[in-house]
Design goal:
This protein has about 140 residues and is mainly alpha-helical. About 45% of the residues lie in helices and about 5% in strands. It has one domain: Adenine-n6-DNA-methyltransferase TaqI, Chain A, domain 2 (Alpha-Beta Complex), CATH 3.90.220. It contains five helices and three strands.
Length: about 140
């Protein structure tokens, strides 16, 4: 893989990531919003990236919340899979997933809550990493 191909694998903050190949019932079709901890890191080409259009960030977070929901987005995305041995999701099919429209204020409120929850999840991940690091440091002191 050359550096130009690697650039295509780099993640940007606030991109919805959807694993698009793998077994059904595994991670296939489960969306997540990339936070700052993932920014600049590379990820496999088997993950779809859904980015906001510059003119509609508020709507993007509403759509992201819908696509990342276990009750709606996951089942809609996973239902588009094809292939027997290693199921795949076609990104062109995902473009046709119906996203229900609500009042603009409701979409904005949902998007804001989703974005805030993603920020809090990111903070939780940082705290978890800190806790793990502290445990490892203490353990290292015991075995030396």
């Amino acid at each position: 893989m050359n550096s130009k191909q690697l650039d295509k694998c780099v993640i940007s903050t606030d991109t919805v990531l959807v694993p698009c190949s793998g077994e059904y019932g595994g991670v296939l079709g489960y969306g997540m919003l990339a936070g700052p901890l993932m920014n600049g890191k590379a990820i496999t080409q088997h993950v779809l990236r859904i980015a906001a259009k510059k003119d509609s960030p508020a709507y993007f977070y509403y759509v992201a919340a819908f696509l990342c929901s276990d009750n709606f987005g996951y089942h809609l995305m996973a239902s588009t899979r094809f292939g027997k041995d290693i199921p795949e999701i076609d990104p062109n099919v995902l473009k046709r997933i119906p996203i229900p429209r609500l009042e603009t204020s409701a979409e904005k409120r949902i998007g804001d809550i989703f974005k805030r929850s993603s920020v809090l999840q990111e903070k939780a991940n940082q705290l978890e990493n800190t806790a793990i690091s502290l445990i490892e440091q203490e353990y290292e002191k015991l075995i030396v």
